[in-house]
Amino acid sequence: MLIVHKYGGTSVGGLDRIENVASRVIKARKEGHDLVIVVSAMSGETNKLVGYAEHFSSKPAKKEMDMLLSSGERVTAALLSIALQAQGYDAVAMTGRQAGIVTDDVHTYARIEEIDPTPMKNAIAEGKIVIVAGFQGITKEGNVSTLGRGGSDLSAVAIAGAIGADQCEIYSDVDGIYTTDPRIEPKAKKLDVISYDEMLELASLGAKVLQNRSVELAKKLNVKLYAKSSFSDNEGTLIAEESENMEAVLVSGVVLDRNQARVTLRGVSDKPGIAAEIFTMLADNNINVDMIIQNMAAADGETNLGFTVPQSELENAKSVIEKFDHDIKGMDFDENICKVSIVGVGMKSHSGVAAKAFATMADNNINIQMISTSEIKISMVINEKYGELAIRALHETYGLDK
C-alpha cells in the first residue's frame, strides 16, 4: 500500500525516539509499503523557539515567527532521513515548500490551498522513503507559512489526499481514541472505530489526540485515518465514515475542556444590531466564540448576554469588549469554569440523552451554567472544580466503563 505516517513531538522527542521511529518505518518498508512520513518538531522545541522570540519582543511579527517555528520540523525531518540512510534505506527529507504545499498568507495559522504532489510522487517512484517537515508550507508570494498548533496532523491528511494514499496513520504517545481521558477515568476504554463527525466533535471540544482541522479535511477527502501509538503495536482507532453499527452506540465519549472562560455583558440594550456588532468585533480579532446565551429582555428593555471563549484568548477578548462602550452597563469575566461534553452519533436516533445528562449533574449537585447542543453533542459549562467529577459520573451513566 501507499501509506502516510505522521509522528508527533513526543514520538520524535529525542535521538533515541527518532531511532525508534526509523525502526517502525523500516518495518513498514519491509512489509512492502511505499511511505511518506510527516514529522513534528521534537517535543518542547516549538515552545523553546517561541521563548527565544519573546526574549526580544512580546509581539514578534507573525511572518518572522513562521520562519522561526518552521525550523523545528525541518530538523526532525533531516535527522530521520539521516537515520534511515545510515541503515541503508534511500530516504529524502523535504520542507513543506519542497513537498509542494501551498497555503494562504495568514501567517501562524495558514490554511492549505493546494498541493502539487509531483515532487513526492517522483521520489516514491524512484523507490525513496519521503520524509516531510509537517506544520508548514509556502504562500503564493514565496513566504514560509505555518498551520497552527497541531498542524502536522493537517499536513499528513492533506498529503494523503493529494497523493491518493491508501491510509494515513497518526502516531502519538496515545494508542488510540478513548471514551474519555484515562488520566481522569481509569475505566476509559479504547474505541476500535469512531466516525469522522464524532471525532471532529471530540477534537473541537478539547480531546488532544487529533487536530480538529485534520479530521475535517479527512472527512472531506475521505482519507482512511488511524490514531496509533509509536510506542506499541496496538491496532489503534480507525476514524471512518458513519455506519449503522455506530448509531447503535448511544454515546461514544465524554470530554473535559478546561481552556474555557465566560464573558457576561450586563444591561445590554435589547435592540437589533447590538449582538451583531459585538460578535463582529470579536471575529475581526480572530477570537473564537463558542457557547452563547441571552436572557429574555426585562421590562426596562435590557438583557444579559453571555458567551465563552478559550481561556488563552480572554485577555484579547477583554480588550476588544472594553472598546464597546455603548448600550451595555457592565461586564464580568469568569475563568473558573470548564466545559463537559458528551458525543455520539447514536443521539440522532435515541431520545432522553439530554435528560439523563442533566439528571446526572443534579444527582452530583453540580450546577449547569450554560448548555449547547447539536445533533450528536451536548455541552455543559460548569464550575471548574467539578469538571473531573462530572466526567467520571457521565462516563458511568452512559455505560462507557463496561
Kindly name the structural category.
alpha/beta
Head-to-tail CA distance between termini: 36 Å
The strand order across the widest sheet is: 3-6-2-1-9-11-12-10
Proportion of residues in β-strands: 25-35%
| Helix segment tally | 12
Number of strands: 20
What is the radius of gyration? Answer: 23 Å
Based on Cα principal axes, name the global outline: globular
Helix content: 25-40%
Segments where pLDDT lies below 50 for 5+ residues?
Answer: none
Average pLDDT for all residues:
91
Descriptive terms for the model:
single chain; 402 residues; 8-stranded mixed sheet; 4-stranded mixed sheet; 34% helix; 25% strand; globular
Summarize the structure.
This protein is an alpha/beta fold. It contains twelve helices and 20 strands. An eight-stranded mixed β-sheet has the order 3-6-2-1-9-11-12-10, sandwiched between helices. A four-stranded mixed β-sheet has the order 5-4-7-8. A four-stranded antiparallel β-sheet has the order 13-18-20-19, sandwiched between helices.
Describe the structure.
With 402 residues, the chain is α/β, with parallel strands linked by helices. Helix content is 34%, strand content 25%. It is built from 12 helices and 20 strands. The chain has an 8-stranded mixed beta sheet with strand order 3-6-2-1-9-11-12-10, with helices on both faces. The protein has a 4-stranded mixed beta sheet with strand order 5-4-7-8. A 4-stranded antiparallel beta sheet has the order 13-18-20-19, sandwiched between helices. A hairpin with a 7-residue loop joins β11 and β12. α2 packs antiparallel against α3 and α6 runs antiparallel to α7. The longest helix has 25 residues. The radius of gyration is 23 Å and the shape is globular. The model has no long low-confidence stretch (mean pLDDT 91).
